[in-house]
């Protein structure tokens, strides 16, 4: 991937105000958007500089359909196709990578003009890559890899060689990635095209997406609501169909929240499943609460394609902390009934005894539960939560073991103001304390004790106990009749109002 030439700032990072750095960031984004031939709507209101919105005509709350009015019919068809359809067309030579990339670049430009979801567009790099892939196909009469020509969007703090890497902090805007993140190298080798980078919040620890560099990313279906976070730029972009497959990151809901808020598929893999070398954040090497990289997509098949492609590359060979397990999408994991239907036991979490879901969420759970019960082989039972208040106490005590010293330092370095949800998760959080080594050991022990207790709670859903009456918490646990999966709300309600995802 060829580096993107960045303009040399006229003022050194040490002498610039945070407002000047934010202005540089937005000017850089505007310059990247100029590479797309499209009349773009003005960006929505931003706390940094609202002069644009004061002169622009008001936008409707639901802006999801506006790109259809600005793009050609063919561009709409391309951008509203799911990944597996596009890959089929590209692999058969029915479409060229160049036309697919051009369509997604233009729709991404529309999307950021309406929801403020992009940090920069990469047209020159994307066109160069697409031309290479089209030439490859013309020469070899075959795709360059399983993702041949597919545009993939990337959350900004996942490093791209030669591009800035700020992780939502104004003071970090001048940092430049020295190489591509491990996961991008794999996707590149599989034939992907990287064409856009997406917004993230200050600290990366919001269930929304707002920063002092780019302002607030809003929901495509109601601009008064959040797109979610911290991968909310990806959520808004995919919700606007400016991408069909994107890369987010997650620690406590940062993929799941945007997916739910924007009507998408999102997957948070287990820790140590996908490669993370090459991303940037505070507390990068802590091991108490481990963050992950994962996909968001406009289709479930897109999630499977992403996971299968990454794991097929055996990333554990170069990132040895990863689990060396294949992606078992073709393996039968469940027994079958006499009629050949899969046997599946689903537990439904209606209420965790801490936060009661809003009526529309409960109604959706009831609808899904009713439909599942009508399928032969599926058993639906109520799931009883296990001490979720204790889970929050533990995780919020382990999020910032240095008392959030790195976050505070990164914010203070530029003098930028604290965003509301940064205050919520750090300064207003009574569990954030500077831990001694002994404190870290204590809370890590609490974490492991809770995990064992929850596993015991889960194992006790088995309908057949172990021979000899052994306790379900011991090594020989019966899996006969145990709940296979828990169906639960992503959050207590639909997408929250801005600055209210708490």
Question: Would you kindly provide a written description of the structure presented here, covering whatever features stand out?
Answer:
There is one protein chain. This protein is α/β, with parallel strands linked by helices and 502 residues long. The chain is built from 16 helices and 13 strands. It has helices at 18-33, 51-55, 66-70, 73-79, 83-91, 97-115, 123-140, 182-189, 232-239, 256-261, 300-312, 359-373, 388-398, 405-412, 420-427, 437-459, and strands at residues 118-121, 151-155, 193-198, 210-211, 215-216, 218-219, 222-226, 245-250, 265-266, 292-297, 344-348, 378-382, 485-487. The strands form 4 sheets. Strands 1-3-2-8-10-9 form a 6-stranded mixed sheet, with helices on both faces. A 3-stranded parallel sheet has the order 12-11-13, with helices on one face. A two-stranded antiparallel ribbon has the order 4-5. Helix 4 (73-79) crosses helix 6 (97-115), helix 6 packs antiparallel against helix 7 (123-140) and helix 13 runs antiparallel to helix 16. The longest helix is centred in the last third of the chain and has 23 residues, at 437-459. The two termini are 38 Å apart.
């Amino acid at each position: 991937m060829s580096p993107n030439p960045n303009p040399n700032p006229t003022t050194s990072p040490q002498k610039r105000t945070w407002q000047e750095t934010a202005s540089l960031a937005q000017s850089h984004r505007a310059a990247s958007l100029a590479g797309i031939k499209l009349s773009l709507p003005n960006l929505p209101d931003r706390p940094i500089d609202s002069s644009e919105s004061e002169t622009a005509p008001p936008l409707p709350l639901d802006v999801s359909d506006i790109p259809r009015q600005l793009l050609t019919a063919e561009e709409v068809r391309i951008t509203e196709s799911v990944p597996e359809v596009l890959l089929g067309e590209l692999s058969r030579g029915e479409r060229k990578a160049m036309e697919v990339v051009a369509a997604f670049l233009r729709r991404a430009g529309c999307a950021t003009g309406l929801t403020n979801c992009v940090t920069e567009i990469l047209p020159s790099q994307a066109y160069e890559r697409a031309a290479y892939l089209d030439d490859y196909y013309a020469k070899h009469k075959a795709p360059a890899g399983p993702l041949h020509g597919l545009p993939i969007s990337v959350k900004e703090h996942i490093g791209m060689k030669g591009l800035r890497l700020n992780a939502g902090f104004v003071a970090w805007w001048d940092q430049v990635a020295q190489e591509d993140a491990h996961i991008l190298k794999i996707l590149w080798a599989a034939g992907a095209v990287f064409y856009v980078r997406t917004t993230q919040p200050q600290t990366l620890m919001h269930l929304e997406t707002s920063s002092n560099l780019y302002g607030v990313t809003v929901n495509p279906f109601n601009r008064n609501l959040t797109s979610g976070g911290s991968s909310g730029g990806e959520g808004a972009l995919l919700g606007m169909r400016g991408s069909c497959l994107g890369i987010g990151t997650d620690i406590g809901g940062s993929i799941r929240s945007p997916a739910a808020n924007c009507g998408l598929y999102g997957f948070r893999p287990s820790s140590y499943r996908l490669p993370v070398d090459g991303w940037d954040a505070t507390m990068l090497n802590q091991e108490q609460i481990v963050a992950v990289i994962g996909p968001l997509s406009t289709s479930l098949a897109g999630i499977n394609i992403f996971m299968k492609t990454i794991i097929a590359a055996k990333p554990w060979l170069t990132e040895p902390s990863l689990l060396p397990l294949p992606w078992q999408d073709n393996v039968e994991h469940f027994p079958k009934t006499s009629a050949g239907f899969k046997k599946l036991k689903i537990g439904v979490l209606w209420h965790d005894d801490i936060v009661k879901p809003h009526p529309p969420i409960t109604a959706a759970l009831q609808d899904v539960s009713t439909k599942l019960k009508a399928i032969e082989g599926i058993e639906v039972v109520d799931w009883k939560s296990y001490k979720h208040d204790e889970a929050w106490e533990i995780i919020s005590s382990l999020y910032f073991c240095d008392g959030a010293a790195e976050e505070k330092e990164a914010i203070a370095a530029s003098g930028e103001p604290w965003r509301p949800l940064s205050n919520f998760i750090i300064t207003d959080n009574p569990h954030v304390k500077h831990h001694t080594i002994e404190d870290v050991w204590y809370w890590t022990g609490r974490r492991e004790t809770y995990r064992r207790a929850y596993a015991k709670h889960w194992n006790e859903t088995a309908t057949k106990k172990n021979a000899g009456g052994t306790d379900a918490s011991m090594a020989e646990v019966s899996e006969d009749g145990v709940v296979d999966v828990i169906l639960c709300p992503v959050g207590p309600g639909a997408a929250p109002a801005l600055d209210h995802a708490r």
